[in-house]
User: Which sequence fits this backbone?
């Protein structure tokens, strides 16, 4: 209907044109089409240039990363999800991507292969840096993903082993689930963790299992020769350093192996395995911080699962300074609020950090080009995170050894 009306008006006006006016119109039309053409050409010229880095050889990009005790820490993430979690996992991944870090993405065995393939393709398409820095692996032959039974723990240990074998150059191993989301940028997190001793492990545990379901953890003799404290339970979401992961995976001492055999028969081994190993090991128990660095709105400690976060929690959550929060519903507007206000993630690309050097324009992702990835630029949320981490470390220091029963 709009088209028909426009043609009728044009037809009526054409008859009354005087020559001068006609020329002016022709000139205007010509200028308009030329400038349209020029902008089209510019658009096409700039598009391939924006994608160039992904074709560049990855070794050059990856070798530009500084590692070691004097460099900023490198984080190794395990992201887990179940059938139907592919999109959530991609969003979570983009919210925590940084070229310095390492990532393993695991969609459990109940998810179809198509979903796994879409996730892998989505990761590559959304962040050209992934191809150049070669720091992401999507698990192709997954384990079952139920929290009940041994396969969840087996999947976590396997991902840790894969990370050790592929690139043993990271400092902390972090586990996240599709229902988790960050409250700080990776620049914030890397900056603050730079001042945290790397021998620390963040693991939430309690021996007060009375408030939880006592049937989950049973008292039994693990090994008649060794006294072990196994009545520990906590959050399955952990931040463990590489030395401790090597201790558990390579198991040159018998403790991790004995406990693994025991936890094979526990209903929810993920809530107790690492906790029991760390608190029974003389080498690591003094370097344990009883906090998993996640924000949860748990009103009732007897509840096993905390409630979903909603708008009413936003202020408290952001002010807490915690680096991660959980659990969120899929595509909750709260996540858009976090993206817009804190992470400054507007497009479908990763969170722009100091490493992103591309121009910020509506049609291009600033992270499709990059500069020195060893530089981080902490934002305003980093101050809250630093206070939170300082407070957590102070509490860990002042309380008696949290591993003690
Ligand atoms: C751990 O702390 C205890 C007591 O606080 C101390 O006796 C022990 O030597 C410490 N162990 C290590 C490995 O630092
Ligand atoms: C946290 O503690 C470190 C030293 O342990 C200090 O340099 C830093 O200023 C503290 N940050 C905040 C925000 O309190």
Assistant:
């Amino acid at each position: 209907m709009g088209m028909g009306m426009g043609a009728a008006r044009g037809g009526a006006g054409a008859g009354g044109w005087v020559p001068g006016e006609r020329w002016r119109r022709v000139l205007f039309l010509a200028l308009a089409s030329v400038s349209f053409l020029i902008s089209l050409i510019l658009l096409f010229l700039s598009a391939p240039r924006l994608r160039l880095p992904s074709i560049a050889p990855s070794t050059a990009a990856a070798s530009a990363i500084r590692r070691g005790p004097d460099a900023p820490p490198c984080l190794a993430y395990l992201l887990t999800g179940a059938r139907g979690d592919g999109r959530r996992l991609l969003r979570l991944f983009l919210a925590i991507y940084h070229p310095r870090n390492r990532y393993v993405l695991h969609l459990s065995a109940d998810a179809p292969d198509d979903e796994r393939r879409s996730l892998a393709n989505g990761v590559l398409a959304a962040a050209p840096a992934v191809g150049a820095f070669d720091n992401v692996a999507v698990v192709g032959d997954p384990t079952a993903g139920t929290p009940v039974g041994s396969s969840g723990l087996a999947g976590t240990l396997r991902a840790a082993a894969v990370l050790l074998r592929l690139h043993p150059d990271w400092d902390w191993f972090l586990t996240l689930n599709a229902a988790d989301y960050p409250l700080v940028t990776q620049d914030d997190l890397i900056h603050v963790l730079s001042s945290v001793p790397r021998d620390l492990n963040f693991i939430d545990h309690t021996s007060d299992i009375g408030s939880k379901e006592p049937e989950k953890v049973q008292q039994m003799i693990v090994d008649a020769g060794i006294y072990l404290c196994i009545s520990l339970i906590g959050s399955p979401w952990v931040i463990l350093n590489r030395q401790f992961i090597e201790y558990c995976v390579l198991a040159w001492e018998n403790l991790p192996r004995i406990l693994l055999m025991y936890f094979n028969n526990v209903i929810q081994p993920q809530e107790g395995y690492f906790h029991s190993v760390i608190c029974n090991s003389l080498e690591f128990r003094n370097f344990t911080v009883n906090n998993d660095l996640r924000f949860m709105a748990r009103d009732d400690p007897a509840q096993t699962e905390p409630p979903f976060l909603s708008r009413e929690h936003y202020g408290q959550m952001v002010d807490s300074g915690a680096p991660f929060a959980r659990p969120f519903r899929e595509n909750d507007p709260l996540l858009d609020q976090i993206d817009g206000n804190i992470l400054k993630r507007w497009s479908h690309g990763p969170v722009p950090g100091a490493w992103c050097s591309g121009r910020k324009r509506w049609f291009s992702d600033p992270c499709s080009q990059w500069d020195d990835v060893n530089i981080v630029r902490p934002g305003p949320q980093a101050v809250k995170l630093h206070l939170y981490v300082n407070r957590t470390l102070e509490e860990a220091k002042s309380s008696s050894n949290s591993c003690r029963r």
User: Anything to note?
Assistant: Residues 73-297+307-398 form one domain. The two ends are 78 Å apart (CA to CA).
